[in-house]
Amino acid sequence: MAAEFDALLIAGPTASGKSALALRLAEVLPVELISVDSAQVYRGLDIGSAKPSRRLRERIPHHLIDIRDPADTYSAGEFVTDALQAIQAIRARGNFPIFVGGTMLYFNALIRGIAKLPAADPDIRRAIDAAAAERGWPALHDELTVVDPLAAAKIHRNDAQRIQRALEVYRVSGRPISQWQLDTQATHAWRFARLALVPTDRAWLHERIEQRFRQMMQEGFLAEVAGLRSKPGLSPTAPSLRAVGYRQLWAHLAGETDLATALTRAVAATRQLAKRQLTWIHADSDWERLDPQQTDPLEARVAALQRGLLSQR
Q: What strands lie across the sheet with 7-11, from one edge to the other?
């Protein structure tokens, strides 16, 4: 890990303990936390996104939480813009920024930059939406697999927003979005130290995922989703409701599944999310990896981080 850096990035799969690690540092150092979570940006997505409580946020500054309504969109490009502004403001206050979360697309965009994609085309978007209404998003994902298999492999078959954008870019330009995305360049000179919590025992992680989901249910997750369903203009195709757990409980409340099935599917989807997060991390050798179950190495790294951050004050 670099001896000097401008911000610390803490990544890892869901339920791996990354938020707890960031909070440990925040308790003893003058830091502010920046959420890297595509669900926590939305107001009303609280329990299911494991959003820090308001009391905690009043005590330790958090950023990029509750900045959008659930019917709105929020892109990786918007995240980078907001994140860079947050770094500048935090360091101007004499504090240190720590990014923490599991939305690896956001981390990647912050580190490597955003590709300059073709502008949106309303007519093409309407045509794609009409086809999806008739045939379903999985069918359009199949179409994307033909024209851009690299992009399709990274996009879930029901991820309406990303399927739509990938097909739109291809139809507008004749060039796959995966090729456009190769032309990225960071637009800043901030230096990042990067730490990833990577459990070697997948069974341990899977158990933590199931335990956390059941705890969310006890805290009122189902009622939270019911409240979202009551909001005018919010539909299950909203980007916010791509978040694991939300879409499965929404389907239950819509009468599509019983609760037990919804819970089973939600836990399975969360485990698949964790697998994708680990794939992102393993594909990038610049992440320093620590096993959260290995206490001594983790404690040594926490102590080193504390010393490193204090030495830069």
A: 62-63, 31-36, 96-101, 7-11, 192-197, 288-290
Residue of 194, 163, 169, 164 lying closest to 181 (CA atoms):
169
Mean pLDDT by 10 residues, the chain (313 residues): 79 96 91 97 97 95 97 91 96 96 94 83 92 93 96 85 91 92 77 95 96 97 97 88 94 96 96 94 93 88 81 70
Q: How far apart are CA 95 and CA 237, in angstroms?
A: 39
Q: Virtual CA dihedral for 83, 88, 92, 94, nearest 10 degrees?
A: 50
122-180: what fold?
A: Histone, subunit A (1.10.20)
Residue 98 dihedral angles phi and psi, to the nearest 5°: -120, 120
Q: CA–CA separation, 63 vs 101, rounded Å?
A: 12
Using alpha carbons only, what angle is made at residue 181 by residues 180 and 183, rounded to the nearest 5 degrees? 75
- Residue 171 makes CB contacts below 8 A (sequence gap 6+) with 121, 124, 128
What is the predicted pLDDT for the residue at 1? 46
Model pTM score: 0.84
* Adjacent-strand bridge partners of 34: 63, 99
Q: Which residue carries 């099935």 as its tokens?
A: 261
Homologous superfamily, domain 7-114+184-311:
P-loop containing nucleotide triphosphate hydrolases (3.40.50.300)
Tell me how far apart the alpha carbons of residues 243 and 101 are, in angstroms, rounded to a whole number: 14
Query: Which residues belong to CATH 1.10.20.140 in the chain?
Result: 122-180
Q: Find out whether 32 and 312 touch, Cβ atoms under 8 Å.
A: no
Instruction: Kindly list the distances between the CA atom of residue 46 and the CA atoms of 65, 89, 174, 246, 265, in Å, as whole numbers in the listed order.
Output: 10, 26, 40, 11, 20
Residue 208: count of CB within 10 angstroms of its CB:
18
- Cβ burial of 157 (10 Å; 0-12, 13-18, 19+) is middle
Measure the CA–CA gap between 164 and 122, rounded to whole angstroms: 11
Instruction: Compute the distance between CA of residue 8 and CA of residue 100 in angstroms, rounded to an integer.
Output: 8
